[in-house]
Design goal:
four-stranded mixed beta sheet; mainly alpha; globular; 22 helices
Length: about 450
Amino acid sequence: MARFAAPSWLRVFVLACAAIFATIAPAAAQGLIRDAEMEALLRDYADPVLTAAGLQPDDVEILIVNDQTPNAFVAAGQRIFIHTGLVTRAQTPNELIGVIAHETGHISGGHLARNRQAMEASMRPAFISIGLGILAIAAGAPDAGAALISGAPQFAQGNFVRHTQVQESAADQLAVTVLDQTGQSGEGLISFFNREFRPSEFLVRRAPAYVVTHPFTSDRVEALRQRVDSAEHHGATDSPESIARFNLVKAKLVGFLEPPGRVLAAYPESDRSQPARYARAVSAYRESRLDVARGLVQSLIDESPDNPYFEELMGQILFENGRAAESLPFNQRALALRPDEPLLQIAVARSLLGAQGRDGAPEAIRQLQRAVALEPDNAFAWREMASAHDLLGQDGLARLASAEQAYAVGDLPRAQNFAERARQSLTAGTPPWRRAGDIIASARVQIEDEGGRS
């Protein structure tokens, strides 16, 4: 392959364009995690707020990001991403709900669509600067031209952050409105901002203006305070039930995500509360101290036999340590308490397959069908479905489930391949045969579209 050295002005131009898009483009997504208990809590907190904002809760997806920074954001349409660090750092349900209300403000205000427009508008002066720089270089002033080109990212980012600062303030104000409409106080949003962000404000104030995407915390708190203090439900507090659920979810997260030493520091052996035992049980399970973990979980089950998530944890501990038969009754009791929870349906199916093999496959398939009816894109459920059909010798349905699994994760060539193989074994004209055809057609179109764009 031939090599060539680009002129210095061209290298500056390319780097400037790259910098513009790098500074304005959204950050790459972190890994997502699933947890039935946490998802149920977030839904119960978010749905009234979403309704008050004029949104349909079923249209808004809530996803959990495995990231310990106290953050949340809206992206990809009506999707709210909640960092695990937001839950563990929040001190009350009201603080967590306040942040959810703020993100709801971004959706209700149509900020994602407006961001695209603002981004395009912010690029215009940047490209003008680059064009002037190229002209200056062509006219024999390379230093001036390079300065104009290298300054282009600051032009673009400076225009864009002024737009985002207005949006953040608007989302704050809408949060207070919907919180009050749902009988809740906005005090949690203020306390969260003061504790988590205000201590570092002196550093933010020293940063270049073109990188400050949010208003200064002190200004946000002052604007919020005026609204919160005059709101009808300013003095509202969290219910004991909400606090109890929140403390359990927070403890569970700490147990799963923090090193054992930090878990014990937060929840020492002397603390016999349910959240403390929950956190220590999860931590012991992660360290393979199974007797300790099982003893703690059993004590929780004995005290709260109607809590499906204690049953689920015991089922998980047993299943993942090769005791599928023992895990089955715990997972079944969890599902009986939360019959429409897809993750619990999948857990029962896994226990059935692990404990009973072929004999358990029909019931496992029934549970998995219920799960994918609620979550059609659940790739893990489709993978288990393929295994269950394979145990029964149902090759066509097993390959179709594998096609569904590949399609759910975006592996289009693999989805197309498995769907084509499924159609060879399925009876023509049946719903599974037609579904395989749908996957083939859809995957082919998307592959061709991607090829055309590359």
